[in-house]
Design brief:
The protein is mainly alpha-helical. It has a single domain, classed as Sodium/glucose cotransporter (Up-down Bundle). The protein contains 18 helices and no strands. α6 packs parallel to α16.
């Protein structure tokens, strides 16, 4: 790294801080703070949706999979983009009729306050843990760039992200997401990918030197592909961070178009990162720790100046996910836990203050947890498993099966969550089976309890579906 590269990254961070300060001027109401006024167009929504899920694990992890497995690693990121697209096409119209801010709010409208509360807790834990992993990732990146120790790097990187998120909420996050999306796209597609292919001798050289399995999209195995689809596709379909971005769209059609574009972009982005990893296998065949594939490749191939832009692109990917998940977690806590149960009669101005304070506290917790676990990035898999395995089925059946009851939803969420956590404890955090156990238990409990619970009186009093104009 030269002074030019470091200057580029410092300027980038300074711009994010300025956007955060401007956000305090724009975010004057709770709806502006949480949903950016529900007024984003197609490009803004597309950029924000893309930025929130393409984080450190998506970028660095995909390059690692390309180095280890080739094209079959594309399923990791594509399954996430697929979940976002499917939600927009299949569930969004049904969901938007309820005029929501949070996913647990829907559980409350369908099944009552108990399901809303437990749903808020699980979804808040999921988004918090994703934020934690991103703080670890940005800390590792800054540590490599500036040669700082990891603790200091996490404090600086996490501090910048949480600063602009706390001040401006979704308005600041949306503005920074567009900046970050643009830098990500330019850094990966216009700089890193073409230079990597050039240094490796072109695509023809890849086909000549790499094993044929590297060009087989099923090489990682059917079981691993199913794990990605179940864990990440279903997880994205019930992720508060994703729903919250969708709710910022100015219309249903805008949201659906943006969601389809995200699916297409996720495939292209994943392919780009996979190819970079495959090029690295030719240029740097003896990388000991394959998690360092992307950074090693960048140092080995990029000239001064371009190196700073590409590392800014990686930082953008990480920070956009961190800010989105932080705001999602604080929204769930401030709206569906604190406001509903402890501050029921506060004004909108007071709720805005409560949201900012909650975001600050959640941000501090995320940094503390990140400093504590440091290298336990498997936490993101646990978070996705818990979310998809316990919440997806009740929401799906609540929307499309009239006999689903409040009692069934509450117990299915609680029991499946315990089954998933127990399965992870017994089989190990890397096991893909617990999420399947959770989904099966979820379905069985929902159906059996709903059928045996003859009276629907336990369903929430506000279980009145707001029909969408056709």
């Amino acid at each position: 790294m030269t002074w030019i590269d470091m200057t580029i990254i410092i300027i980038y961070f300074a711009v994010l801080v300025v956007v955060g300060i401007l956000g305090t001027i724009k975010a004057k109401t709770s709806e502006m703070y949480i949903l950016a006024g529900r007024n984003l167009g197609v490009f803004m929504l597309f950029g924000c949706l893309t930025a929130v899920f393409l984080g450190g694990s998506s970028t660095i992890g995909s390059a690692q999979l390309g180095y280890e497995s080739g094209f079959s690693g594309v399923w990791f990121v594509f399954s996430m983009g697929l979940g976002i697209t499917l939600f927009g096409l299949l569930l969004l119209k049904k969901v938007t009729g309820y005029q929501l801010m949070t996913i647990s709010e829907l559980l409350g409208k369908l099944f009552g306050i108990e399901s809303k509360l437990i749903g808020a807790v699980i979804a808040a834990i999921y988004t918090l843990m994703v934020s934690v992993t991103q703080v670890i990732a940005i800390g590792a990146l800054l540590s490599a760039i500036f040669d700082w120790n990891l603790t200091f790097s996490m404090l600086i990187g996490g501090g910048v992200v949480f600063f602009y998120t706390i001040l401006g909420g979704m308005w600041s996050v949306s503005m920074t997401d567009i900046i970050q999306f643009s830098i990500m796209t330019a850094g990966i597609f216009l700089i890193m990918l073409p230079i990597s292919l050039s240094k490796a001798g072109g695509f023809g050289e890849l086909t000549a030197q790499l094993p044929s399995s590297y060009f087989d999209f099923s090489a990682i195995g059917f079981k691993q592909i199913i794990q990605y689809l179940v864990t990440f596709t279903l997880g994205m379909m019930v992720g508060q961070d994703i729903w919250q971005r969708y709710f910022t769209a100015k219309s249903l059609n805008t949201a659906r178009i943006g969601g389809v574009l995200v699916g297409i972009y996720s495939l292209l982005y994943s392919m780009a990162m996979i190819l970079i990893g495959m090029c690295a296998l030719i240029i740097l065949p003896n990388i000991a720790d394959t998690q360092n594939v992307f950074t090693s490749m960048a140092f080995a191939t990029l000239p001064s100046g371009l190196l700073g832009i590409v590392f800014a692109a990686v930082a953008a990917a990480i920070m956009s996910t961190a800010s989105g998940t932080l705001l999602a977690s604080s929204t769930l806590i401030s709206k569906d836990i604190l406001k509903d149960h402890f501050f029921k009669n506060i004004s909108d101005r007071q709720f805005l203050l409560l949201s900012r304070v909650t975001t600050f506290i959640v941000g501090m917790i995320a940094i503390v947890v990140a400093l504590w676990i440091q290298e336990l990035l498997v936490a993101i898999d646990v978070a996705y498993a818990l979310l998809a395995g316990s919440i997806f089925v009740p929401i799906l059946l609540g929307l499309f099966w009239k006999r689903a009851t409040a009692k069934a939803a509450f117990w299915s969420i609680l029991i499946s969550a315990l089954v998933i956590l127990g399965g992870l404890a017994i089989e190990g955090l890397s096991s893909s089976n617990p999420i399947l156990y959770g989904i099966v238990v979820n379905i069985v409990v929902m159906i059996v309890v709903s059928i045996t619970d003859r009276s629907n009186k336990n369903r929430g009093q506000d279980n009145v579906k707001i029909e969408i104009s056709r």
